[in-house]
Amino acid sequence: MTPKRKKRMTLIGLMLVGVAIAAGFALQAFNENLMFFYTPSEVAAGEAPAGRMIRVGGLVTDGSVKRQSDGLTVQFDVTDNDKTITVQYTGILPDLFREGQGIVAHGRLQQDRLFVAEEVLAKHDENYMPPEVADALKATHDKAVGNTTEQVN
Amino acid sequence: MSRYLRYLVPLAIFFILVAFLYRGLSLDPKRVPSPLVGKPMPEFSLPRLKDPAATLSDSDLKGKVSVLNIWATWCVSCRAEHEVLLQLANTGLVNIYGLNYKDERAKAQQWLQQLGDPYVANAFDADGRTGIDWGVYGAPETFIMDKLGMIRHKHIGPLTVEALNSTILPLIAELQATP
Amino acid sequence: MIPELGNFALILSLCLAVVLATVPMIGSLNNTPGWVALARPAALGQFTFLLISFACLVNAFLSNDFSVLYVAQNGNSQLPIIYKISAVWGAHEGSLLLWALILGTWTVAVSLFSRKLPAEVLARVLSVMGMVSIGFISFMLFTSNPFDRVFPAPLEGGDLNPLLQDFGLAIHPPMLYMGYVGLSVAFSFAIAALIGGKLDAAWARWSRPWTLIAWVFLTIGITLGSWWAYYELGWGGWWFWDPVENASFMPWLVATALIHSLAVTEKRGAFKRWTVLLALLAFSLSLLGTFLVRSGVLTSVHSFAADPERGLFILVFLCIVIGGSLMLYAWRAPDVSSGGKFDLFCRETLLLGNNVLLVVITAFILLGTLAPLIYDAMGWGKISVGFPWFTAMFVIFTPFLVFIMGMGPLSRWKKQDPGDLARQLRMALLLSIGGGVLLALPLFHQGSASMGLAVALSLWLLSSLLLSLRQRFRYRKGLAGILKDFGARGSGSFYGMIIAHLGIAFFIIGITSVTQFDVEQDIRMSPGQTVELAGHTFRFEGAKAVRGPNYQADQGTIRVFNADGQEVAVLNPEKRTYTVQTRPMTEAGIDAGFLRDIYVSLGETLGNGDWSLRLYYKPLVRWIWLGGILMGIGGLLAAADRRYRMASRPETVAAPATAERLATESHS
Questions:
Q1: For chain A, which residues make up each domain, given as ranges?
Q2: Closest Cα of chain B to A138: distance in Å?
Q3: Among A11, A33, A72, whose Cβ lies nearest the Cβ of C386?
Q4: Weakly modelled stretches of chain B, pLDDT under 50
Q5: Is C68 an 8 Å CB contact of chain B?
Q6: Residue B55: half-sphere exposure toward Cβ, Cα within 13 Å
Q7: Does A47 contact B at CB distance below 8 Å?
Q8: A145 to chain B: which residues are within 8 Å by CB?
Q9: Number of helices (H) and strands (E), helices first, in chain A?
Q10: What is the CATH number of domain A37-152?
Q11: Chain A residues in contact with C393 (beta carbon < 8 A)
Q12: In chain C, what residues touch B26 (CB-CB under 8 Å)?
């Protein structure tokens, strides 16, 4: 192997090692930043991890929005028509936030069902629901329908 | 030969990507046939649009083939399909019931006065709760129920003449024929 | 009548696109001059009908023709005229027509400004662009026709989304589309070259100005989008790694790699296969972006209405265009001759490193954007990839990129002695490290390692640029010599590079500053109440109701005073409710400055005249967009380089000795 060839091979080898290290960092950072989505039912069933950043979504229950005196901390319930969890958020809620609308919140689960949100997202169109929320609602509806059919039979 | 193989790498990566994208399209909830099809229609009992004191409920739709159309005045596509609904109503083949979804009573009534009323009766779903039970994502959506009150078809988006002729009218005829 | 005319014109443009895509291409392969000559007129014809079609749609909006479904959905008689026009591209169908029109415009431009291009090559380039046109026009005619009617016509339109009723956002799509579509020119040149089997410096020279201009538009488009998001969305963010944003950023990164790669191919005849692949990749990412935004596959705050049927059409189109081009590449690229040889350490390898890094960053962003889809498709759950991951990816690789950027312009082509380079850059290195460490210390600021790094990188870039300038001026005699240099051949590229790289320095400082040092507070305030933030006093003076042309609003008044008690700004943030679409919209109150922005937005009314407010102090935020603008100016300068407008030039790469001399002298 000529010295030039050797140099080239070393260079390529170094680059590959560099890429491998970068990939390693990337994967690790990726896992840390992955946020899974959980429905209120899944949270109630204990399937959602506590302390980790996760996403939760559903419909804001009517009449559940309670504002604290500082004007900025608010608590509201989020439901998938089956189970409900309470979300707490300090900050200005998005413009499209409304009772009865679908929302998605990023945050951490504290105790059993208190979810402290760091971000609350409401879709940009009042007639569109985030797909995950829609799926969740559909799932609970199917469950309910299944129960009724069983009862009838 | 291996010299040529590495030039195929971009193409290979692209095809893997396409596979995921294709899968992604079929994952869209709108594309998946509604799980409500083949199940009994959800129970509801809502005030009527024209007369708030009266109610329209799922039992009113049972016993005969019926069509439930989810609509609203804020929905432009509903305006687009209105003509088609009137056509369907004129055939006299089936009763069309409406679910006025997250709308304003006065506007909805004015709409029907101005454009014609294809509905036998309209339920007024102010907050959309009933719509949720029906798995509604937005307006317009149309459901066809058989005589037993089971949902047999869901049409998402505005009704078109093609959909009427190819799917809906034949289905209604078929359902009418069965006892 | 007029909408029907528009529809008819669209059909005609499709016919001409078919002619354009087939006849000249076949003619170029069979050597039939008559067929080849049809390319230019066909391109002109296609453009004319697209223009007519577009004009009809604009007319429909201006005349409030709500019998057209698209106008009924997006127009409104109360809309100010400028927004009636921008509503034309405010939603899916109309924006497609804009895309097609812009593609037609680029096609005509290429046909008109390529007089010296051999006829068969031009024919192939235009044919490929015609093929892309076929895709977009038929997409419209078969699935998304903007001229569909609605009966009975509503009395009033659904109104343009209030978020889009803004000048910045009115011109943002046209700018972006000019960029996306412009990349199709490089794509077409690459395909034409692969077909013809001749990939040489001449090809690179033809492609380069077109690619540069497309890149400039893309840069401006992305910068506009970011600036718009900042002042319009009401909470001070300027980039969200949203799939739609990523869809514009990825082509930009690859286009950046492409213009650098084209430089090497043009000057040294090297990297030919890489350049071709990058050209194919850049436009492919543009198309992929179009798919992601319109198919509903990814949820995003600003994707168009989801429709899987349309998504399927685009996906098939993607397969044909990208799959076809990559197949052509796999078939023809191995036969392309390797270009000029170069050593282990020289400008070529530095540029190669630069491009590899850019492509790696793009790959990671693509991965992050598609991850939710991949996880869902594999049944691993519904995920979303957090903002910090994208930022981390970017932050990890950018320092290496900037390091190379400092060395590249100072290196020689073909062979550079590392020791010599190190000697030249010794001071630069010391200055950068010194400055960075100094700023990172708690003495000057609250101790920020990343700010120190950003300053170090910028100083490195700046010093390297100054060194480049000094080297260039050394060969020019005096001030007159320097001024004369501005008009010389190759100077456009050089000064363009200087300004564009300067833009990157501003960009890095701006981003780091605003990320590390911005101060934010959400607070409940009563009228008359004051609060201290970042050395300023903010006094809330209550909110009152106001009226706009098509909206009502609550307008707050906040007076801002600096540490000496002088009034610095009076801000009037608003919470608007538009008459038709009724969703609330936040208009921020911003006091813009070169060194900082003061930013206030209204939250919610809390009773008794109290409001929740969001207050921001954002240092150096404008430098982000200043960086973008500088990059755009740099690109324009490079594209305007006289050598692209010169008469004939030798087609092949000059003999090695001459090339060496030229390279050493001009360092461009």
A1: 1-34, 37-152
A2: 6
A3: A33
A4: 29-33
A5: no
A6: 7
A7: no
A8: 36, 39-40, 42
A9: 3, 7
A10: 2.40.50.140
A11: 26, 29
A12: 308
Find chain B residues with C-beta within 8 A of C291's C-beta. Answer: 21
> What ipTM was predicted for this assembly?
0.77
C residues 285-324 lying closer than 8 A (beta carbon) to A? 299, 301-302
- Residues from chain A contacting residue C360 (CB–CB below 8 Å): 19, 22
d(CA B58, CA B75): 24
DSSP, collapsed to helix, strand or coil, labels residue C322 as helix
Cα C521–chain centre separation: 32
- Chain C nearest CA to A145, separation (Å): 24
Return the residue of B nearest to C307 by Cα. B30
What does pLDDT average to in each consecutive run of 10 residues of chain C (668 residues)? 93 96 92 90 96 96 90 85 90 91 96 87 94 94 88 74 78 92 95 87 88 95 90 82 88 96 87 91 92 70 58 88 92 80 82 91 91 82 82 87 90 82 84 83 67 88 90 77 74 90 94 86 89 90 87 90 88 85 80 90 85 90 94 93 60 39 40
**Dihedral sign computed on CA atoms, order B132, B136, B142, B145:** negative
In 3D, which of C9, C106, C80 has the Cα closest to residue C50?
C9
Q: Best mutation site among A6, A30, A76, A101 for testing chain C: the one with the most C CBs within 10 Å?
A: A30
Any chains having at least 3 CB pairs less than 8 A from chain A are: B, C
What amino acid is encoded at C336 in this protein? V
What is the chain C residue with the closest CA to A107?
A: C386
Instruction: Read off the pTM.
Output: 0.82
Name the neighbours of C, counting chains with at least 3 Cβ pairs within 8 A.
A, B
Task: Assess C319–B contact: CB distance below 8 Å, yes or no.
Answer: yes
Clarify whether residues B76 and B18 are in a common domain: no
- How remote is the C-alpha of A149 from its chain's centroid? 32
Same structural domain for residues B53 and B136? yes
Three-class DSSP labels, C415-447: CCCHHHHHHHHHHHHHHHHHHHHHHHCCCCCCC
- Same-domain check for residues B141 and B98: yes
The total number of residues written for chain B in this structure: 179
What is the side-by-side strand order in the sheet with B95-101?
B121-125, B95-101, B66-71, B141-145, B151-156
The domain that contains B155 carries what CATH number? 3.40.30.10
Token duo for residue B60: 């009113």
**Full residue range of the structural domain in which residue B3 is found:** 1-32
> Is there a single domain that holds both residue B27 and residue B54?
no
The residue whose two tokens read 């020791």 is C419
Distance of CA C125 to the CA centre of its chain: 23
Residue A67 contacts C, CB cutoff 8 Å: yes
Residue C162: how many other CB atoms lie within 10 Å:
22
